[in-house]
């Protein structure tokens, strides 16, 4: 299983907002238990939707600017971006089906 790539404040616009395909961003932190619980689900989604959706992780401790810009109050928060706009979000450690169903709306 592959490790989901990280995105930083500096690369957020280029990697997420300017992407040609929808992007799922996992806002997380290393100390967050639920973030660790949802990480394998995010990896599975990345594999399942390879080529259809770009899946990235953003460490909120290391990238506070983007987390603050999008009003991240609790983590994990999974946001879906399409054509440079935030179109949906899921907060908390959710089952894969919940995340997949949310993503399907934007494909």
TrEMBL record:
Keywords: Disulfide bond, Electron transport, Redox-active center, Transport
Swiss-Prot/TrEMBL site (Deprotonates C-terminal active site Cys) positions: 26
UniProt name for this protein: Thioredoxin
Homology family: Belongs to the thioredoxin family.
Disulfide bonds, paired cysteine numbers: 32-35
Short name of one Pfam family: Thioredoxin
Limits of the Thioredoxin domain: 1-107
NCBIfam families referenced in this protein's UniProt entry, alphabetically: PRK10996.1, thioredoxin
A GO CC term assigned to this protein in UniProt: cytoplasm
GO molecular function: protein-disulfide reductase activity
Signal peptide (residue range): none
Sites annotated Contributes to redox potential value: 33-34
Residues at the active site: 32, 35
Transport keyword on record: yes
Originating species: Rippkaea orientalis (strain PCC 8801 / RF-1) (Cyanothece sp. (strain PCC 8801))
Family annotation (PANTHER family): GEO12009P1
